[in-house]
Structure formats: structure tokens, C-alpha cells
Design goal:
Layout (H helix, E strand, L loop, with lengths): L1 H21 L2 E7 L2 E8 L3 H19 L7 H7 L6 E2 L2 H16 L9 H7 L11 H7 L8 E4 L4 E4 L12 H15 L4 E6 L2 E5 L8 E6 L8 E7 L3 E6 L4 E4 L2 E4 L14 E8 L2 H7 L7 H9 L5 E6 L3 E4 L7 E3 L5 E4 L1
Parallel strand pairs: 15-17
Antiparallel strand pairs: 1-2, 2-6, 3-5, 4-5, 6-7, 7-10, 8-9, 9-16, 10-13, 11-12, 13-14, 14-15
Helix pairs in contact: 2-7, 4-8, 7-8
This protein binds adenosine monophosphate and magnesium ion.
The site of magnesium ion (MG) has 8 residues, from helix 7 and strand 10.
Length: about 350
């Protein structure tokens, strides 16, 4: 009898444990001006999730260009005045941003801030700047005017009015930091999504790759143009449909072409990048500005990195290295592997 009870208890424990590990801890919050959702599997999932939310909030306060207190706010308010001491994390991100500004030929531009601020596409009273206003701002966005001194731990903007904006890279960085927190808690399976910067830890609970959708531009959220089967990597998407306002029937979105000062008009509706780290995929998703040909050429030169680009003329251009992981779900599109 006693033996039988032991067996029942043992079976119950196994049942409860496996039940626990299959049911994720889930949360959805608004942080960094976007939706943050977490799905975490494992014993310590809740503690990991709570710590992760705290970390994202902390990064927002340090890195935001809108909040007055953090490193970027201090850097921007001292533009043309003096060096500003900043945290190690900020230095790392500024250096990374300079690297991506360089290798994208300025399509990703860390000093795009003055234009982003003027366009302010999410404001209720957003309007189209005059060509004269744009012309006045363009001389402020030369990314080489950001000077980072790693030994001194400082950064500086050379001209008054210049503004660094980490909006195109910080969410990716935050998603990498979140995965590090999950790992520290012994988590082996999890998904973090910070406004389209998706970090994937391990594989799905069924032991298969995670299936991640690529949004069909212009359709209901959650309607996918394609599905990617991915493990242990990051996927970041920049899309014209994410944030925009409409004026006289024309869409003005949040990804600015630093060459013109206007929202990028490269024939792409979205650019999704797969890379080992989200800080990289986030920055690289700004190949949105470069368009398909130049964008794909750049991505093909970066190891372990792939792209899925959706064009206005209904094509999906996918790098060859993603062929076995790509599945078309919206038949309106034609697929081209390159
Ligand atoms: P994402 O959310 O990753 O699509 O990045 C868009 C955000 O990056 C914008 O809201 C701006 O803050 C910033 N941004 C806009 N245009 C650029 C650009 N050309 N280079 C770097 N950052 C940009
Ligand atoms: Mg992004």
C-alpha cells in the first residue's frame, strides 16, 4: 500500500513538473515606447521575466532620447559643448552604432535624431516639414561628428543641435540583455519580443524550431506573409507600417533616409534580419533605407546573417541561407531567393 502511494506521488510529481515546464510564464507590457512580450519556459520563469522587465525599464531610462535623465539625453543636451561621461553599455551601443553607420554608408545613421524629432510621426499633430526645414537639419546628421572615447568613458557631439538616437538599435540590445537574464536563471526555452526585435532562446517546447511569423505589411497584425523556423537567434523587422501618419493620402513613416531627410522610399515595405544577436539584427534592419539590391549585397557579406525583404511590388526577397527555414504563407507574394 505504502509502495503504491509512493508511486502515485512520484507520478504526480513528474506530471506536475512536466506540466509546469510546458506552460510558459507570459507577460505583455508597454516599455521603450512599444509592446514587450515574453514567453518563458522553466522553473524560474516568473523570476526571470520580472527581472527582465526591470532591465528593459532601466535601459529605457538610460538610452531614451525622449526622457530627460539618461546618458543619451545628457549627450544631446551637451552637443557642441563638452564630453559627457556615459555608462559602459551606452559606450558599447554608440560604438556599435558608429560601426553600422559606417558599413551601411550612412543608411543607418546614429545622428538621425534631429530629423526623427522634427518628423515626430506618432504625434497627434504630426505634419510634413517644409523642404527648407529639412535642408536646415541635414547638416546636423553627419555621424562622424559623434566622438566616442572608450578609454575616458565619454562621448561628445561636435555641433550644437546634434542628437544621437539609439531608437534603431536599443530595442535589439535590450532583447539580447533579456536573453542573458533568462540564461542566468537556467532558462533554456524562451521568446522575447521588444517591438519586433525577437530573441529566441533554444527551441520550442516540442523540441522543434520556433516558428516565427513575418508580418504581411498593411494587413491585420498577426497575418503573416511568411513563417521562419528558427532556433537560438534573433529576428528584427523594420517596417513602414509600424509607425506613421497620413497626410493627403500619403504615408509618412518613422524610418528616415538620412540622404534625403524624408521617410525612406526604397521600394521596400519591410526588412527582417536574422542574426545571432539582436543588437546586430536591429541595426541591420535599417537596410530598409538602402533598398533590396544594396541591402541584400551587404547582408550576404556578413556571416550567419540573413534577410527577408518585402517589396511594394509584392515580392519577398530571401537570402539563400534561409531557404530551408522559410515558408511562404501569403500567396499574394512571389518569392525570390538570392
Ligand atoms: P525600428 O523600430 O527598429 O524600425 O527603428 C526605427 C527607429 O530608429 C525610429 O523610430 C528612429 O528612432 C530611428 N531611426 C529612424 N531612421 C533611422 C536611420 N536611418 N538610422 C538609424 N535610426 C533610425
Ligand atoms: Mg527594430
Amino acid at each position: 500500500m505504502k509502495h503504491a502511494i509512493h508511486i502515485v506521488l512520484l507520478i504526480l510529481t513528474i506530471f506536475i513538473l512536466s506540466g509546469c515546464s510546458q506552460k510558459p510564464y507570459q507577460s505583455t507590457e508597454q516599455i521603450m515606447g512599444t509592446i514587450v512580450s515574453q514567453s518563458i519556459y522553466g522553473r524560474d520563469a516568473q523570476a526571470a521575466g520580472i527581472e527582465a522587465s526591470g532591465k528593459i525599464r532601466e535601459l529605457e531610462s538610460v538610452l531614451s532620447f525622449h526622457l530627460k535623465t539618461g546618458d543619451i539625453a545628457k549627450l544631446n543636451s551637451n552637443a557642441g559643448i563638452e564630453d559627457v561621461p556615459v555608462r559602459k553599455e551606452t559606450l558599447f551601443l554608440l560604438e556599435k552604432s558608429l560601426h553600422y553607420s559606417e558599413i551601411t554608408g550612412g543608411s543607418f545613421n546614429i545622428l538621425v535624431g534631429p530629423l526623427v524629432k522634427r518628423w515626430n510621426v506618432t504625434a497627434a499633430d504630426a505634419d510634413v516639414p517644409s523642404p527648407a526645414e529639412i535642408r536646415k537639419l541635414l547638416p546636423l546628421i553627419h555621424y562622424k561628428d559623434l566622438i566616442v572615447n572608450e578609454t575616458k568613458g565619454t562621448a561628445r557631439l561636435l555641433k550644437k543641435g546634434q542628437m544621437a538616437d539609439l531608437g534603431g538599435i536599443a530595442k535589439g540590445y535590450a532583447s539580447d540583455e533579456v536573453l542573458a537574464i533568462y540564461r542566468k536563471h537556467g532558462i533554456q526555452k524562451a521568446i522575447i519580443d521588444i517591438g519586433g526585435n525577437i530573441g529566441l532562446l533554444g527551441s520550442s517546447p516540442e523540441g522543434k524550431p520556433w516558428r516565427v511569423g513575418v508580418q504581411s505589411p498593411g494587413k491585420e497584425r498577426g497575418e503573416y506573409a511568411a513563417i521562419l523556423s528558427l532556433t537560438d537567434c534573433s529576428l528584427s523587422t523594420s517596417g513602414a507600417y509600424e509607425r506613421f501618419f497620413k497626410k493627403n493620402g500619403k504615408i509618412y513613416h518613422h524610418i528616415i533616409d538620412p540622404a534625403t531627410g524624408y521617410p525612406a522610399d526604397s521600394g521596400l515595405l519591410s526588412a527582417s534580419i536574422i542574426a545571432p544577436m539582436s543588437v546586430d539584427s536591429d541595426a541591420l534592419s535599417k537596410i530598409f533605407v538602402m533598398g533590396a539590391d544594396r541591402g541584400i549585397a551587404l547582408i550576404k557579406n556578413i556571416p550567419d546573417t540573413g534577410a527577408v525583404l518585402i517589396t511594394r511590388d509584392k515580392r519577398i526577397i530571401v537570402t539563400e541561407n534561409l531557404k530551408s527555414r522559410f515558408e511562404l504563407t501569403d500567396k499574394e507574394f512571389r518569392v525570390e531567393f538570392r
